[in-house]
Design goal:
Layout (H helix, E strand, L loop, with lengths): L1 H12 L2 H17 L7 E10 L11 H20 L2 H11 L11 E6 L4 E8 L2 H18 L13 E12 L4 H4 L1 H23 L6 H6 L13
Antiparallel strand pairs: 1-3, 1-4, 2-3
Helix pairs in contact: 2-7, 4-5
Length: 224
């Protein structure tokens, strides 16, 4: 109990240190932080497959088409995220002021449903819708160039959903950035209180006198 009272005395004596540090940290963070521009994503869900070739001999053409479709789905994710596909989308857009790169495109395969999805990222909702429409058109009309082994007919791409446009919400780290800074500043202030108290060699009570090897005959209480 004595230690707790001593800690409370130390904290109460210099409570203003963590308070000032916390306030200053919050003010500086608010004044210097820059709100990033909003980001929008357009998502397209589609299926891709190969039609059964009746001329295939020695195996079931439907099974062969199914297996080929499986391989295409795995490979097509990499194609969607390539600069080649981004260039084809830019050519479909035919707008020099609206050019995307492979960093604006991502792809995924929903393994349980055999459905693919493509996500495009941009800073304007109307433009990302335009980009997504161009990407969908590119998927449907130019996929043969990515799979030369399939012949001139290419794969069959069917858009089943989208493009759906939505705004990207800030991540948890961005939302907690200032509170975390304030907490760290408060903890740093607490540490400084105890450091300053350790370095302070002034006499604050009978205990400090006894630590110096002297006996205390009496103590005048604080006037309140």
């Amino acid at each position: 109990m004595t230690d707790i009272r001593e800690y409370w005395r130390i904290l109460r004596a210099r409570w203003y240190i963590p308070f000032i540090l916390t306030v200053l940290t919050v003010l500086v963070s608010v004044l210097t932080s820059q709100t990033p521009p909003p980001t929008y994503v357009a998502t397209i869900r589609f299926t891709i497959g190969v039609n059964a070739d009746p001329n295939v001999t020695g195996t079931d053409p439907i099974l062969a088409a199914y297996q080929a479709s499986e391989y295409i789905r795995d490979d097509f994710v990499e194609i969607l995220q390539s600069q080649l596909f981004a260039n084809d989308v830019n050519a479909t857009l035919n707008n020099p002021a609206l050019q995307i790169s492979k960093n604006n495109i991502s792809g995924a395969v929903e393994k349980q449903r055999r459905i693919m999805s493509m996500t495009l990222t941009w800073n304007d909702p109307a433009q990302v819708k335009q980009i997504a429409d161009a990407a969908a058109q590119t998927l449907e009309t130019q996929n043969a160039k990515y799979f030369s082994q399939l012949g001139s007919q290419g794969a069959s791409v069917t858009i089943i959903d989208g493009p759906d446009v939505s705004q990207v919400t800030p991540g948890l780290r961005e939302r907690l950035d200032i509170p975390i800074r304030a907490l760290l500043a408060f903890l740093a202030g607490i540490v400084l209180i105890f450091v300053f108290d350790y370095l302070d060699d002034s006499v604050r009570g009978a205990g400090d006198v006894e630590k110096m090897g002297m006996s205390v005959l009496g103590e005048i209480p604080d006037r309140k």
